[in-house]
Known about the structure:
With about 190 residues, this protein is an alpha+beta fold. It has a single domain, classed as Nuclear Transport Factor 2, Chain: A (Roll). About 30% of the residues lie in helices and about 35% in strands. It has helices spanning about 1-10, 25-30, 40-50, 55-65, 120-135, 140-150; strands at about 20-25, 70-80, 85-90, 95-100, 110-115, 150-160, 165-175, 175-180. The protein has an 8-stranded antiparallel sheet with strand order 1-8-7-6-2-3-4-5. The longest helix has 13 residues, at about 40-50. The radius of gyration is 16 Å and the shape is globular. InterPro entries: PepSY.
Amino acid sequence: MWLLAAALLALPFAAPARAITSSAAAALTPQDGDSALDVHAVRRELDSFQAAQISLRKAMAIAEALHTGSITADISFDGATEPAVYRVKTMQQNRIWRHAIDAATGEVVGGEAASPLASLDAEDRDNLAVLRALRHRLADAVRVAEHTTSGKAISGGLTRERGKLNFVIVVLAGSDLKEVILEPPGPRRR
């Protein structure tokens, strides 16, 4: 998974609600002397993702159903494991839950891990407090990103840009990786 993460970090950042397209071949080609990036391993990871029977949105729904009232804060595909899984972090009350969801069957793999929100740094706690107050969820941002790019989301999470919390979704559309950053609408009305 670290190879895919390295390739994704090479993508340029987008302005809110815009997608930046970068050819997967270009993004995965090692730069001058960059032998750490194994193009073949990344290609295998992407091929594994394309073969997944469970979508990222379905994996989020499975993880959220494990704990009543939980919401997804972060999700990514990990094709380097056997079986390939989605690594999902959900938030429920004052806990962060970590799950691995089998990308072929949708079953929870290897149990779950929980940690208190208090164990996170202040910025992460603030981000999760804002996420909890939003009327839209990560699943909504994934749906918009997939529709906009005509692709299949491979990861999603939160990012701070100019002091605002945004959703960042990476989508595989054909052989292109696209990063979509969306600024969510304001807090829920009470």
